[in-house]
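Expect chain and fold; see below:
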Amino acid sequence: MSTALTTPALAPRLAANWERLCPLTDLEVERGRAALLGEEQVALFLPPGGDVRAVDNHDPYSGANVISRGIVGSRAGRPTVASPMYKQVFDLRSGTCVDTRGKAVERPRVWPVRTLDGDLYVARGGAR
């Protein structure tokens, strides 16, 4: 979930635990973007009418770093992305695979995101 932070007192605390990735204007609705966070690739999404979402760019089924190139959509009101490789569909809020295409359940890490002064920040280390 993306949370806008505008209080100046929060900026130092944000800088200590979060990594600035890009200006929000770099994101387009329904288009993924890949970002490098240290040595890890993060896929960023701006679903229609929704908050910015971030998950691993690594597709757990194909092993390729391609999730940012997936098709953005929704299932039962949940923002999703379909992998461009084998078409598994992932919930962008939890990383849960909602369509495994007959495979064992896998899921990418979900990265908490925040905004501050028009920039996007991602928590270091991600979350499961």
Summary: The chain has a mean pLDDT of 88.
